[in-house]
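Can't paste images in this forum, so I'm doing it all in text. The chain is below; anyone willing to post the predicted C-alpha cells underneath?
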Amino acid sequence: MRLLVFILVVVALTAPSSQIRADHFTASLLRSDGVLVPLAQYKDGRWKNPRAKPTDSTEEESNTLADLPEPWFAKGRLPSPLWHFLSRRGKAHLLNASKVVQVENHCQKLWGIVSDLPKEETVDARFGYVGVALNVDRKVNPSYELNKSQDEWTRLHSFIQSEFGKEEQARATELSQFLKPPSREEQKNTSITLSYLYQMTIEKSGERLYYFEALKEYKKPIPINDQTCNNVFFNGWILTKSDELKVIDSKMGWKDCEPGVDSIPMGLLNLDDEVFIFTVDFGYEGDTYLILKLNESRMQTVLETYGGSC
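Text version of the structure:
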C-alpha cells in the first residue's frame, strides 16, 4: 500500500503541466534555432510576467526578458518538458524541451529552452521567429502571409486603398502638425504599397483577422528637411464580419520621421470566449513582444514585454 502511494505521488509531481491545469500555462516564442523563449504565464484569467522587476523600476517601465540574472521559468523548479506547437504547414508538434540556455537577441541575452523542432519547420521563419508554443494542449492558430497571387490579396488591397484615403482625410490635422500633407488630388492618385498582409482564423466563429502595413510614397521633396519623410504609413487590423471587412484598429504617420513599429503577428489563441493575439514588434529601440486582446472595435494590449536591443 505504501509503495502504491509513493508511486502516485511521484507521478503527480513529474506529470507535465498540460496534464495538471489547462487554465494555468506558459506561452513561449519559438525561434528558428529551435529555442523556446518563455514569454508569459496565463493564470487566474489574466496574462502576466511572473518575475520581479528591479526595486528601482517604476510602474510605467515595461516588463523585460533581456539580460535577466536567471531564468524565471526554471526558478526552483524544472521547466516544462513538453510544448505544443502548430506550424504554418498545419502540422501539430509535441516538442521535447531539454536544457536551459541563453541566446543572443541584438546586443542582449534571453533565457530559453532547447527543443527538438524539426528543421523543415524553420524554413518559413520570419525575422528569426517561427511561432508560439504552449506547455498545455491548446491550439495557437498560426498567421499566414498573403501574396499577390491569392484572391484575398486583390480584395484587401482595394479595401485598404479606400480606407487609406479616408484615414488621410480624417487625420489631416494630426498629420499637418509635422509636415504639410500632399494635396487631396495627389493623395487620391497615389496607389498604396502593401508591405505586409497577414491572415489568422478565429476558430470558434470562423471569422478572419488580418494585419496589414501599407505605404504611400510621395515623391515631392520637402524643403529644409534632409530626412526622407515624404511617405505616409498606415498600419492596422481588419476583421471580417459576415464577409464584410472592417478596420478595427490602425495607426497613421510619416514613415521614418515619426515613432512607428513593424509588427509580425505570430499566432492567435482562442481562450474560452476571448481571443488573444501574439505579436513581435520591431522598433527603433529594439524588439517588443505583445499579447493583444480582440475587442469588438479595437485591439487591447494586455501585456507588453521588452525583448532586447543594442
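The longest strand covers residues 92-105. The chain has four helices and 18 strands.
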